[in-house]
Amino acid sequence: xxxxxxxxxxxxxxxxxxxxxxxxxxxxxxxxxxxxxxxxxxxxxxxxxxxxxxxxxxxxxxxxxxxxxxxxxxxxxxxxxxxxxxxxxxxxxxxxxxxxxxxxxxxxxxxxxxxxxxxxxxxxxxxxxxxxxxxxxxxxxxxxxxxxxxxxxxx
Length: 155
Description:
By secondary structure, the protein is α/β, with parallel strands linked by helices. It has one domain (about 15-30, about 45-155): Glutaredoxin (3-Layer(aba) Sandwich), CATH 3.40.30.10. The chain has helices at about 10-30, 60-75, 90-100, 145-155; strands spanning about 30, 35-40, 45-50, 80-85, 105-110, 120-125, 130-135. Strand 1 (about 30) and strand 2 (about 35-40) form a beta hairpin. The model is unreliable at about 5-25 (pLDDT under 50).
């Protein structure tokens, strides 16, 4: 289940151009709720679960309780969990104040398509070396044993 699905095939030239854009996006366009720049490379040495979501996306909100349940287990495994939205800082802050979910929320200032996100929620898993190793499109029940096992196995 996901929101904002856009289907489009890419040719190999578009894909190789996209790879360089992704690297630039990872380094340049995230900010925390205080407006400070955040780079995925800030978390090198940790595994990253980067979840793209929106305050208006029902599947995004529905998967949050299971992600909260999985969070302590994943953090013990060296994961940092980041929730990124392209909405305004004000909208994200308002959402954070109205829900009990304690995540590291980020604002993504690039276009989601530039990061190859075509549906919400979309989650990228990065290895300790910063390499994107897995992608999950759509809502997930994060605290399911098979999901936890799969995430633990990622190096």
